[in-house]
Design brief:
Strand order of the largest sheet of chain B: 1-2
Largest interface: A-B, 37 and 25 residues
CATH topology of the largest domain in chain A: Rna Polymerase Sigma Factor, Chain: A
Distance between the termini of chain B: 134 Å
Helix content of chain B: 40-55%
Shape of chain A: globular
CATH architecture of the largest domain in chain A: Orthogonal Bundle
Number of domains of chain A: 2
Number of helices of chain B: 3
Structural class of chain B: mainly alpha
Largest sheet of chain A: none
Structural class of chain A: mainly alpha
Number of strands of chain B: 2
Number of strands of chain A: 0
CATH superfamily of the largest domain in chain A: RNA polymerase sigma factor, region 2, helix turn helix motif
Number of helices of chain A: 8
Strand content of chain B: 5-15%
Strand content of chain A: under 5%
Shape of chain B: rod-shaped
Oligomer: heterodimer
Distance between the termini of chain A: 54 Å
Largest sheet of chain B: 2 strands, antiparallel
Order of helices and strands of chain A: HHHHHHHH
Radius of gyration of chain A: 18 Å
Chain lengths: 177, 102
C-alpha cells in the first residue's frame, strides 16, 4: 500500500489504517517536536496539529513521501509557534527518565542538561538539521526536502551545528569541572 | 567522548496518552465530517428534482381569443376565435361517406 492509499484510507475513517499511520509517526514526530521546542506540552500540540492537517487533506503523494511531509509539517508548525511566542530557545521543562543508580542518574541528568542547553543555544536552522540528522537519523536528501533547502545548504548547516555544539559543550564541561 | 555519545544522553520523554486521545478524537471528527460531506449536495439535488417536477405539472393557461399574425409581406391580419358558448357534442357519430363514384 502506498503512502497516498494509506492516508486516503485514514481520511475515509479506516481505524486500522489510522492505527498503522499513527503508530508509525507518533513517537518520531513527538521526539522531533520536543527537541525543537524543549517542551513536552508544546510538542504534543505540534504533533496533534500535524495529524489534524493530514486528516484535512494536506498530503499530496506526488510531492514527496509521507515521512518527509510529516516532519516538514511539524517543523513548519514549530516555526509558527516560535513566531507566535517570539522566542526560539528551548523551554526549560526538562524531563529526563532516571533508570540508573542515584549517582549515575545525577551524572546523566547533568550531562543531559548540558546537551539540552547546548542544542537549544544553536540557531533554529542549525538545530533542526542537527536533530533530524543526529537523533532521527534521516538522510541529507530527506532533511533537505523537509527544511526546503538544497543538500549543500543542509551539509553546511549541519557542519556549523556540530562545530558550534562541540564548542558549547566543551565550554560548559570546563565550566562545570 | 564522541559528540554522538553525548547527544544521546539527552533523551526525549514519552508522549502522554492525552495526545493519543486528542489525535484519535480529531480522526473521528474528520471521518464523520467527511462522510457527511455529500449530505447538503444530495439534499439540494433532491430539492431540485421536486421543484422541477412541480414546475412541469403546473397548470398552463392558453389564450385563444385572438391572435395577430404578420405576413412576410408586412401585411397584418387579425384572426379571431371566440369559443364563448361552445359546447362539445355529446353523441357525436362518425359517418364515413364514400366518395361518389362516377
Amino acid at each position: 500500500m502506498t503512502d497516498g492509499e494509506l492516508v486516503e484510507k485514514v481520511r475515509g475513517g479506516d481505524e486500522a489504517a489510522f492505527q498503522t499511520l499513527y503508530g508509525s509517526y507518533r513517537d518520531p514526530l513527538f521526539r522531533f517536536a520536543y527537541r525543537l521546542t524543549g517542551s513536552g506540552v508544546d510538542a504534543e500540540d505540534l504533533v496533534h496539529d500535524c495529524f489534524v492537517g493530514l486528516f484535512r487533506g494536506g498530503f499530496d503523494e506526488r510531492r514527496g513521501a509521507l515521512r518527509t511531509y510529516m516532519y516538514a509539517a511539524v517543523r513548519n508548525l514549530a516555526r509558527k509557534h516560535f513566531r507566535d511566542t517570539g522566542r526560539e530557545e528551548l523551554n526549560s521543562d526538562l524531563e529526563i527518565s532516571i533508570e540508573e543508580g542515584p549517582l549515575d542518574g545525577l551524572l546523566s541528568r547533568e550531562i543531559a542538561e548540558e546537551v539540552r542547553s547546548a542544542v537549544g543555544a544553536l540557531p533554529l536552522l542549525q538545530r533542526e538539521v542537527l536533530v533530524l540528522a543526529e537523533y532521527e537519523e534521516l538522510s541529507l536528501e530527506e532533511i533537505a526536502r523537509i527544511v526546503g533547502a538544497d543538500v549543500g545548504a543542509v551539509k553546511s548547516r549541519l557542519h556549523r551545528a556540530r562545530v558550534g555544539l562541540r564548542k558549547l559543550l566543551v565550554a560548559s564541561m570546563k565550566g562545570s569541572a | 567522548m564522541d559528540l554522538r555519545d553525548l547527544l544521546v544522553k539527552w533523551e526525549a520523554p514519552e508522549a502522554s496518552s492525552a495526545l493519543d486521545e486528542r489525535v484519535y478524537a480529531a480522526f473521528k471528527r474528520s471521518a464523520r465530517s467527511r462522510s457527511n460531506f455529500w449530505i447538503p449536495f444530495a439534499a439540494a439535488a433532491a430539492g431540485g428534482v421536486v421543484v422541477a417536477g412541480l414546475w412541469m405539472r403546473r397548470p398552463v393557461e392558453i389564450e385563444m381569443d385572438s391572435a395577430v399574425v404578420s405576413s412576410p409581406a408586412g401585411v397584418t391580419a387579425e384572426t379571431e376565435l371566440n369559443v364563448t358558448g361552445f359546447v362539445p357534442i355529446t353523441n357525436g357519430k362518425i359517418v364515413v361517406v364514400r366518395k361518389a363514384e362516377n
